[in-house]
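I can't quite decide. Please look over this sequence plus structure tokens:

:::
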Amino acid sequence: MSEPRVRPDPAFALLELYEAALPEVYGYLLSRCGSVAVAEELTSETFLGAVTACRGTGAPPVSTRWLIGVARHKLVDHWRRREREERGLRLVHETGTVDPWDEELDALLAREVLAELGAHHRAALTLRYLDGLAVPEVAKLLGRTVHATEALLVRARAAFRTAYRRKEGRDD
């Protein structure tokens, strides 16, 4: 009679990668959400989610790049929650017409303005322009159609431009 084979827990690969990947995942999240508390919470959710995911059948190999992908999904989920909360608290008036905006932006001011935008605008702009994702990828992550995402990006850019100019002291 042969002994049953025990499959090693795939989460051990994650454990081996943890120390090297933690600063990368945390840094990714902090640079996009701007809040230490939120970045810490999302980093924790990322690693917990990764443990569950890597134990599933057909899970990809554990790597820092894969963990950043998990973190991106956790960040999008966070923004969706915030959007639902904000929508429940207030109505947002959005405009739909924008012209291309070719100006050099102050990075600190831009980060401050981005943090003040609604979660849906912040998510769309961050995924599109900071992460450099194509509109169809942004649409998939946000659970929207490509057309709806394009419209959201137009409104998000307009909201960003208005807030940025207001903070700069210009209202043109």
User: Anything to note?
Assistant: The longest helix spans residues 64-89.
